[in-house]
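User: I'll paste a sequence; please echo it back and then give the predicted structure.

Assistant: Echoing your sequence first, then the prediction.
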Amino acid sequence: MYQSITLRRATLPTALALIFASGLAGSVTASAADLGREVLATGDGWGSFGTGVTGGSAATSEHIYIVNSWQELREALGGTGAHTQTTPRIIYIKGKINAMEKNGGSSVLTCDDLAEQVTVSDTGRPFSMDDYIAHFDPDGSWGRNPPAGPLEEARAAAAKLQTSHVQQRVGYNVTLIGIGKGAHITGAHLLVRDVSNVIVRNLHLSDAYDCFPQWDPEDGSAGNWNSLYDNLSLWEAEHVWVDHVTLDDGENPRQSLPKVYGRPFQVHDGLLDVTHSSNYVTLSYNIFGDHDKVNLIGSSDSRLLDRDKLKVTMHHNHWINPGQRAPRVRFGQVDVYNNYSQILAAADFTSMWGIGFESALYAEKNVIELATGIAPSKVIKRYGGEHVFTHDNLVNGSPVDLLAVYNASVSAADQLTDDVGWQPTLRLHVNNVNDVKAIVTENAGSGKLDSDRP
C-alpha cells in the first residue's frame, strides 16, 4: 500500500534531533547504523578534496523521508524542480521501485503504452518502433541518410514522453540511501546535474531502458543505435560520493538484445557516466554488472572547459564483464586503484581503460581476470591520449606491466608514456594487490552495508 509522502517522513528520536539542531550533524556519523548521516571520510579520494561530501547529513526531521514508490521518491527530491533545491535532505529507499510505474505503483507502463500516446503526423497512426525500423532501413529506399520527417519526429516525441516518466534530477545536499538488502530502482535515469554535495549509497540501480533509441547511419562505418539513459549520470556535478551501489542492465542484458540493420539494438547508454566538467568524485565499492559502455569520464575532445576538471577516484569496485569504458577518460586526473575486473567472454570485450584526449589515468594495484583469447595488451586502448600510469596490477593472477605490454603491441605512433603529471595523495585503505579480489568480492555492491535504520 502506498501512502502519501508527507505521512512517510521519518521521525527522529528527540535526543538525536537535538544533536542535529546543535549543528554537529555532518561532522561525524550520528549513529553507527544510520547511514543517512554518514559523510565521506577525509582523504577518501577526489570527492574529499576541499569541502568534501556531506550530502544531506545536516537534514532536519522534516526533510528526512522514507519512500517505496517512484512518485514518492520524485516528490521527496523536489519533483521537476529538484535541481533548484538546496535544503539538505536524506531519502531512504525501501524495497523495489519501478520508474515506469503508473496508478501509484499498482501497474507498470510498457513501451507500447508510451508509443500509443504519440501520433505520426502524416498518417494519423500511433507511433511504432516497428514502423520506424521498416522505414529507415539502410538497405531500403531510405538508404543511409539520417532519419528525418514525421516518423523521426514521432520517435523523438515518444522519447521525450518517456524521459518525463523515467528521468529524475537530484538537488544539492542530498543523500539517497537504500534500506536493507532489497533497495532497488529499475528503469530510471537519475541525473545529478548542475548541483553539488550528493551521496548515493546502498542501492541497486538497473535497466535504464530506452524504449525509443535513435538510428544514426553516420555513427561509425556501419551505423549505430544510440540510447539516451544512463542508470546514473553526473553532469556538471561536484563533490559526489557513490558507494556500495550495484548498477546493471537488469532483465535486459546486452546478450539478449537483437541486432537491427546488422547492429546491436542498443537500449542502454552508460551505467555511471561522469561528464561535462563534473569534478571531485569518489566511486567506491560499487558493482558494474555486464554492460557494454560502462563508465565514460569526459564528454568530447573539443570540450576544453573540461580541462582541470573530471577529477575522479575509483577504488574497490567490481566490474563484471565490461565491454569497454571501465573507465574511458578524457582530460581528467583519474585514480583507479584496488579494483577487481572480470572479463568473461572475448566476444563481449573491446578494452577496459580508454586513454582519451589530455587524460591522466593512474592505475595501481588492480586485479584483472581475462577470458581465454584476450591478451593483456587489450586492457588499454588509445583514443587520442598520450599518458597512462600502471603499477602493481595482476592479470590472471600474475604481475603484468600493462603499459609495457600495450606499447609492445602497437605502432610507435600509438604508444603511451607513464608521465601523467600527477600522483594520487587522496587515498585511504590501500590494500595489497593480492588481497584485492577477496576484499572487493566480499564487500562491493548494494546490500552489503548495515542500513536497517531509521
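The longest strand covers residues 196-201. Residues 1-32 have pLDDT under 50 and may be disordered.
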